[in-house]
Specification:
The protein is built from seven helices and 15 strands. With 415 residues, the protein is an alpha+beta fold. The radius of gyration is 26 Å and the shape is elongated.
């Protein structure tokens, strides 16, 4: 029943996507321009360096920023705690006192806001006040996530007083909760270094750390550091770490990274463990196929093809062990449909791409004519159509083969 319910939810989502796609096509043909604000998720705003409130001789000698994703949950907890520690040094001949600023986010946007802001200086809590500015703060995202630069008209900032004695270090520690940008099974994060451009000179050195509740890998977290120099992260246990030195805080050096929501990735780990314990159990491979299937879901109905291939490979491994494994046939049919459903709108209205999907559904119905999941998928495909499935004799199904082959070597696309 849980699988059928999930199928129904996906069915409803896809119907909405089909409706929106058709609406966009109709709008273009009728000369009506679609609303740009619905085309992509928002840019990131907070997650930033401190901004100097005046011209200054104070420089940022070091910063260490920690994103804690261990409690992140796609549906129940979409905020992550962030801790940033800044070591500031006054190179001037006089003490300096100023109002230091930090952006909390765009007033017009629900996502990517910083809340519960706290700041300490050399271990002592500082008072903060809220201010509003017409100066927008954006963290540039990849082009396919971009939105008009004029979308954010005002931003909220916090300000707090700091004294910087001459020729001394001052430690500033900032804590806040960051609302993430959801992109299907993946969450987008970032850090906006440009706000630190008002300090004296370059950032001496910096460390960015992201913590997950399991081992970090190139599959479950990726980095797209839009920088003037290449920065390669270090995958170290449950942390991924970026380090730099003598970096100019400009828009060309902003950090962007994406991580799969932990509640979405944990089933992949559980399935891999199940396979390790029972390498000839077809249901364990179906479990892994289902887990990758969920991870493959992207934003606005998109599918991550790296994970969809992993999903299909897993289902095929299950069929190599048990050719009558209904859930594996259903899984392949469903994953292929998720990848290509939009072809039916305009590119392939005759549904030629549906042939392998129908082959797997036909096998399911040959084994179980009343299978609810297959019936629901076929009903979804046949919305506005009347496709006929080929006839399959289950007696003619191939016999199980040898041990399933390993996954082909492949690297995920960078996020």
């Amino acid at each position: 029943m849980a699988g059928v319910k999930a199928m129904q939810n996906n069915f409803n989502k896809r119907l909405l996507n089909i409706f929106m796609a058709v609406l966009c096509v109709f709008s273009i043909l009728s000369g009506v321009k679609p609303v740009a604000a619905d085309a992509a998720p928002p840019e990131m705003a907070p997650g930033s360096d401190l901004e100097a409130g005046q011209s200054t001789k104070v420089r940022m000698a070091e910063e260490v920023v920690i994103f804690d994703l261990t409690k992140l949950n796609r549906l129940e907890n979409s905020s992550v705690p962030v801790t940033a520690t800044f070591t500031m040094f006054n190179d001037g001949k006089e003490d300096e006192e100023m109002m230091v600023r930090f952006p909390l986010g765009c007033d017009e946007e629900d996502y990517s806001k910083a809340t519960e802001f706290e700041v300490m200086s050399n271990g002592k809590s500082l008072p903060v006040r809220i201010s509003t500015s017409k100066k927008p703060v954006f963290l540039p995202m990849p082009p396919y996530y971009s939105r008009r630069l004029d979308y954010c008209k005002t931003s909220t900032w916090v300000e707090f007083p700091v004294v910087f004695p001459k020729k001394e270090n001052v430690s500033l520690q900032v804590h806040y909760m960051l609302e993430v940008v959801p992109l299907g099974a993946t969450a987008a994060f970032g850090y906006y270094l440009q706000t630190g451009s008002g300090w004296n000179g370059e950032i001496g050195k910096g460390t960015f750390i992201v913590r997950l509740p399991y081992e970090t890998t190139i599959e479950n977290i990726s980095c797209n550091w839009n920088s003037t120099r290449a920065f390669s992260p270090e995958y170290k246990g449950k942390e991924i770490i970026w380090k730099f030195s003598n970096l100019e805080p400009t828009t060309k050096n902003n950090l962007i990274f994406q991580a799969i929501f932990p509640d979405q990735w944990q089933p992949v780990i559980d399935a891999q463990n199940a396979i390790s314990q029972s390498p000839y159990d077809a249901t364990a491979y179906v479990q892994l196929g289902d887990a990758y299937h969920s991870v493959a879901w992207g934003d606005h109905g998109a599918v991550d093809h790296y994970f969809s291939k992993r999903s299909i490979y897993s289902y095929e491994k299950a069929l190599a062990l048990d050719s009558y494994q209904i859930d594996a046939h259903n899984g392949i049919a469903s994953m292929l449909w998720d990848e290509q459903w939009n072809l039916l709108i305009s590119v392939d209205q005759e549904g030629k791409f549906l042939k392998p999907i129908f082959e797997h559904l036909s096998i399911v119905f040959a084994i179980d004519p009343e299978n609810a999941r297959a019936q629901m998928l076929l009903g979804e495909i046949n919305q506005g159509h009347d496709f006929i499935l080929p006839t399959v004799n289950p007696v003619l199904l191939p016999s199980p083969t040898a041990t399933p082959s390993p996954f082909p070597t492949e690297t995920p696309e960078p996020g």
